[in-house]
Design brief:
The structure is a single chain. This protein is mainly beta and 240 residues long. The protein has 2 domains: 124 residues, Thrombin, subunit H (Beta Barrel); 103 residues, Beta Barrel (Thrombin, subunit H). 11% of the residues lie in helices and 37% in strands. It is built from 3 helices and 15 strands. Strands 1, 2, 9, 10, 11, 12, 13, 14 and 15 form a 9-stranded mixed beta sheet that branches. Strands 3-4-5-8-7-6 form a 6-stranded antiparallel beta barrel. Its main location: secreted. It is found in: Secreted, Extracellular space.
Length: 240
């Protein structure tokens, strides 16, 4: 266990500037094209007029999940069936009808960092576009998982990567106050950084969490726990 002083530093890092919006696959490799047909690119418009991007994943033909901290002035479009962002052939662009941030989301601590996007149209399910199942409370604690995204890599500098990258991660205890209540954690150089926020933490064939943040000084990667919100997710998707 970490000493009390280190725990305090970790908690401060999580709630202050060291916790950055996540998203660069470090130590990974290019994914096999369309081997993750649930992956989506989420386009967001910022208040300063810029267009930026987050990751996300398809839950149902008409619902995508991403990170709540990805919310900009508006979430406009999701792009499905992408492998290479510079070659958007046979992809589907669908506008966002409505956003549903989790009611418990805290922008200071990244707790409950979950956002549902209701799409204007149903996606056409194909070999390169299909949803992925969410783990439920009964599915237990995962250990060996993977994450993927188009965020910056070691070789892309300040730019997003053109192709989908993936990396395996091993989960362990979140050694800061209430960490395991809200997050899954992995440590070490390999994992996430800037640009992949909202992408799924896949363990087996199910999503257990999503890319939320990284405490850079300690190389701690944070994934929002989705299992905690199964009833909320079902209610939104069934009522809309």
């Amino acid at each position: 266990m970490l000493a009390h002083s280190t725990l305090l530093l970790l908690t401060l890092a999580l709630t202050a500037q060291d916790a950055v919006h996540a998203g660069r696959i470090i130590g990974g490799k290019e994914a096999t094209p369309h081997s993750r047909p649930y992956m989506t690119v989420v386009e967001r418009h910022m208040s300063n007029g810029r267009i930026t991007y987050c990751g996300g994943f398809l839950l149902r033909e008409d619902f995508v999940m991403t990170a709540a901290h990805c919310t900009g002035r508006s979430m406009s479009i999701v792009i499905l069936g992408v492998h290479n962002r510079e070659q958007l052939v046979n992809t589907q662009k669908i506008s966002v009808k409505k956003t549903f941030p989790n009611e418990g989301y805290d922008n200071d601590t990244y707790r409950n960092d979950i956002l549902l996007l209701k799409l204007n149209l149903k996606a056409e399910l194909t070999s390169s576009v299909s949803p992925i199942a969410l783990a439920g409370p009964e599915d237990g604690e995962p250990q060996m998982c993977s994450v993927a995204g188009w965020g910056r890599s070691e070789n892309s500098g300040k730019n997003l990567t053109d192709v989908l990258m993936e990396v395996n991660v091993t989960l362990g205890p979140c050694e800061f106050e209430n960490g395991d209540t809200y997050f899954y954690c992995s440590t070490g150089r390999d994992g996430i950084g800037r640009g992949d926020s909202g992408g799924p933490l896949v363990c087996g064939n199910q999503v257990y969490g999503l890319v939320s943040a990284k405490i850079e000084h300690f190389d701690i990667h944070l994934f929002a726990r989705i299992q905690n919100h199964s009833e909320w997710i079902k209610k939104i998707m069934n009522d809309v």
